[in-house]
Fold this sequence. Notes:
Helix content is 49%, strand content 8%. It has 295 residues and is an alpha/beta fold.
Amino acid sequence: MNRTRVFLVGAPRSGPSILLDLLTAQPEFSYVTTAVEADPANLRPSGKTWMYDVPLLGDFWFERRYWKKKLPAPAESPAFWEYYLPSFRYRHEEPKLHTGEDLEEKDLTRCREVVEEIQDLQRRDLFLGQYTGPSRVAMLRKVFPEAKFIQMQRDPRSVAIHLSMRMKQDRSANALWENREEWRALMPEELRGRLEDLPETPLNFAGVMVRWWHVQYRTELSALPESDRLSLAYADLLSKPDVTLKRALKFLGLKPAKRLERYVKYHNVKHSNKRLSKNLPDDAAAQLERAIQKV
């Protein structure tokens, strides 16, 4: 039996969540539901996805899965992965890079068994996971040697501006800024020097962090065979979702299901393209260009 796990990854606000929403219209995928994300120790609610297999009514319920709390919906699942993989979360209070080498065998076994149980409960051969932020490709590949990865990429300027704005509003993102010296110590020398040359602002720091994440993804993904990695553009997903989804499915050896075609047709994803209208001053824009410059 094919027990492939597929992970949608990328920097925050770069599209993995949108791709998760669309791809879960494919009947081949199992996934972490919102109920399981709320209580990772209890996997039984995963089985409720049987509702979507009921003829006629299944499509009716599927279209309303985000409106009715009792209906299972796919979840961004940081709590789920942190629960089963203790080193999955990047702790702001104690920054450290994790590649999976510090995972104990019992954690690896437990995580594999849990994902397989979700697949059994949902009666699916493929598992679709998603996360954003620093790369955990090497870690997840250690847990699931057969795993495939689809990376979503967006203009790093937009990602950096979003991240710097969140630093003022979100406690987690603000902790990233407050512990910037610890994060700086972990960066490659070139990026550390870049921060030293730039004025110390949340936007510049966010720009360098985003570039660092891109370096991490490039390093960890390039270590995989080409058959196990795919890169998609956020702009393409929004402007031509049908074409982009066909690329993703072809990568996985699948063809678009009728439900997916209907879902894309009647759900205009272009509304997700919340372009930033904030006009940066010339000096701030120039500094951001320096911060996100490729390594």
